[in-house]
Amino acid sequence: MAEVAPPEAERERFVLSVDGLEALLVALRGDGWRLMGPTVRDGAIDHAEIRGVADLPRGMTEVQEAGTYRLARREDGAFFGYAVGPRSWKQLLFVPKLRLFRAHRQEDGFQVEPESTEPPRLALIGARSCDLHAIAVQDRTFLEGPYKDPDYAARRERLFVVAVNCGQAGGTCFCVSMRTGPRATSGFDVALTELLEGGHRFLAEPGSERGAALLARVGAIPAREPDARAADAVVERTAQSMGRAMDTTDIKGLLYRNQEHPRWDNVSERCLGCTNCTLVCPTCFCSSVEDTTDLVGGVAERSRRWDSCFTLDHSYLHGGSVRHSIRSRYRQWLTHKVASWWDQFGTSGCIGCGRCITWCPVGIDITEEVAAIRATDGARPGA
Amino acid sequence: MSTGALPTAGPMMPEPLRVRSLRRETADTFTVSLDVSERPGGFPFQPGQFNMLYAFGVGEVPISISGDPARPGELLHTVRTVGAVTEALRRVGRGGRMGVRGPYGRPWPLEEARGLDVVVVAGGLGLAPLRSAILHLLRHRTEYGRVSLLVGARSPEGLLYRRELARWQEDARLKVLVTVDQAGPEWKGHVGVVPALLRDVELEPSRTVALMCGPEVMMRFTVRELERQGVPDSRIHLSLERNMKCAVGFCGHCQLVPFFVCKDGPVLPYDRLRPFINPREV
After folding, report:
1. Which residues of A touch B245 (CB under 8 A)?
2. By CB atoms within 10 Å of each CB, which of A219, A226, A368, B201 scores lowest?
3. A164: closest CA among A196, A133, A106, A124?
4. How far, in Å, CA of B128 to CA of B266, rounded?
5. What is the pLDDT of residue A108?
6. How are cofactors bound according to the entry's free-text note (chain B) (predicted)?
7. Does residue A104 fall inside a structural domain?
8. Percentage above 70 pLDDT, chain B
9. Do A147 and A197 reside in the same domain of the chain?
């Protein structure tokens, strides 16, 4: 994505008008980037291809609570006046379904035909700090292990990122406690803060050389001190109004020593095993493979598709599943997300976006589950 | 840990290899030899590593390599037919092709075991990934102390590599103990569980390394017996089995709390496994 950004303190900040934002989007399109940004679709603010500011969810916001998401109007005409929608950017980088290869039957066996990947150049418009952290988390899985995922790597290289610092906390998010927001600090080419008072405008901060060049091209003017202060105040207010938090003190030790905690039985009575949390999670990376053939068995295909640790098939070993109870599957998901991820990748797998809370049909709240275990650390079944 | 080159089209591309021979081992297992003569250097691997084997149009499964590591010109796998993919692999037959990619995973710690006594414990199909370790130990016999091989199976008919096992039993360089869970009157050997065999092995716990593979319940009790005799956890090595779709650390299926069995295992020392393997359903 972006080249190495200059230290934060030395970054110059600019002001961009609403017309300037339109010019920025037009310039990106002119440079051959496909714009992927927020737009109202299917009753939610979702990411889709957009053409300009007219497609942005102007004057719209959302109300999120555990198990609840509702669109709502806002009076100030904000373009980015929401927190996070149901889908992160995950499906653009780690695609839900991918053909790995095709094989052709021959007289003496078969031949494998590799797939080549030529992904589009995408500009992400309105990416939030939590979601940029999520991309960095997935990079560790797909790019920084002993093997690289070539499709992910190719898509990852063709990104331009216009971040937006959150102007309001969502109903379920907790990035402050996860140290992943609300202000974007890395992983972007340009970061915007939407200013609504004293004239609708954006404070713009370049995060890369090409981001700085773009701002110069679209007529961004150097920010004056009051604009910079106003932008800082927006982010500060968002941080202050965040309703949830996760205490991450020794969280790995906490989860590891409480694998038999009675809370797992409690949550298993509520969890439906529906997989929603894993699908909306921007860091969940599990996949499975599917094999198909044509009717005569001459051509076979192998595809990769998203999978979830909440399915029985996920841990299937000849004869049965290792994790056959919902209790063990929820425990696997939560322990992995906030604890064993540290051992595997040196980071938390949770970035505090709150999507798993909002989109859980029964409103299970990851922060509440961790807090419940912490409150009764060491409890044993039947205790 | 893989020694194989990364295929340009991605790490999940199989290479079709011809079946040189396919031999029945027991009622539900067979050993397949794959032709690697067209590969420069054959198929080098380390004992304990595994490959992903692909049956055209049906699927892919992780299978341990069972051959002699000193003979990379011969690629052997012993497969148990337990589902659609393994059944399709069996049906490929001589002259057909199956897809191969690998080798993957952490091998048996045979370097670390040099100079020490080695106890090899195999239950059922667990002998397959241990066969290459045994062949290595025999080839480098003078570098190791006493070598014992404890083998268990459900029945005499369920024992793998029976002719080779008989040869090993005659080999003075090895102490071989075999047991079965159940047998008819024609069976003259031990009847009972594998961990019980450990009582017939003279162990010097401070200089013993244990390598084991078999059903998890068998390994659990074997570990308990080794610990009881004083073998340190860090020198008890288990080869684990989990669902695997990719073998390269992407798919997430083989996780055992902090470990990806595909890349951190399949061989792991018990001191690292202990905190995680005892709760049920991990």
Report:
1. 287-289, 307
2. A226
3. A124
4. 13
5. 84
6. Binds 1 [2Fe-2S] cluster per subunit.
7. no
8. 97
9. yes
Residue A2: the pLDDT is 46
pLDDT for the residue numbered A114: 87
Q: Does A253 touch chain B (CB under 8 A)?
A: no
Whole-number mean pLDDT of chain A? 95
User: Same structural domain for residues B168 and B222?
Assistant: yes
pLDDT in tens, A289-343: 999 999 999 999 999 999 999 999 999 998 899 999 999 999 999 999 999 999 9
State which residue of chain B sits closest to A325, comparing Cα positions.
B281
Q: Check CB contact of B97 with chain A, cutoff 8 Å.
A: yes
Give one word for B281, left, alpha or beta, with left for phi > 0 and alpha for psi -120 to 50: left
Global ipTM: 0.92
Q: Are A299 and A104 a contacting pair, CB within 8 Å?
A: yes
Q: Report the largest interatomic distance among the alpha carbons of chain A, rounded to a whole angstrom.
A: 76
Any domain includes B184: yes
- Verify that A270 and A158 share a domain, yes or no: no
Query: pLDDT (tens digit, 9 = 90+) per residue, A196-234?
Result: 999 999 999 999 999 999 999 999 999 999 999 999 999
A315 contacts in chain B (CB < 8 Å): 242-243, 253
Average pLDDT over residues A147-159: 94
**Cα separation, A365 vs A362, whole angstroms:** 9
Which residues in A268-283 are b (16+ Cβ under 10 Å) and which e?
Answer: beebeeebbbbbbbbb
Q: Does B246 belong to an annotated binding site?
A: yes
**Euclidean distance between CA atoms B181 and A139, whole angstroms:** 49
Mean pLDDT along residues B166-183: 96
What residues of B are in contact with residue A137 (Cβ under 8 Å)? Answer: none
What CATH number does residue B203 fall under? 3.40.50.80
Taking CA atoms, A59 is separated from A17, A72, A128, A197, in Å, by 17, 9, 18, 15
Nearest Cα residue to B151 out of B103, B105, B81, B214: B214
Residue B255 lies in a domain: no
Instruction: Check CB contact under 8 Å for A112 and B99.
Output: yes
pLDDT in tens, B104-141: 999 999 999 999 999 999 999 999 999 999 999 999 99
Domain of A124, in residue numbers? 8-94+118-240
Q: Do A307 and B253 touch (CB under 8 A)?
A: yes
* Banded pLDDT at A383 (limits 50, 70, 90): low
Tell me the per-residue pLDDT of B47-69, one tens digit each, with 9 for 90 and over: 999 999 999 999 999 999 999 99
Q: What is the DSSP annotation of A342-375?
A: HHHHSS-S-----HHHHT-TT---HHHHHHHHHH
Greater confidence, B8 or A45?
A45
Domain co-membership, A43 together with A62: yes
**Which residue carries 């719209």 as its tokens?**
A60
Domain count, chain A: 2
Specify whether A84 is located in the same domain as A220: yes
Do B219 and B130 lie in one domain? The reply is yes
pLDDT band at A10 (very low <50, low <70, confident <90, very high): low
β partners of residue A45: A40
- Is the residue at A245 inside a domain? no
Domain that holds residue B30: 15-104
- Percentage of residues in chain B having pLDDT higher than 90: 93
End-to-end CA distance of chain A: 51
Query: Domain boundary residue among B104, B125, B144?
Result: B104
pLDDT at A382: 74
Yes or no, beta carbons of B252 and A286 under 8 Å apart: yes
Same domain, A186 and A162: yes
* Together in a domain, A270 and A146: no
Domain containing residue B80: CATH number: 2.40.30.10
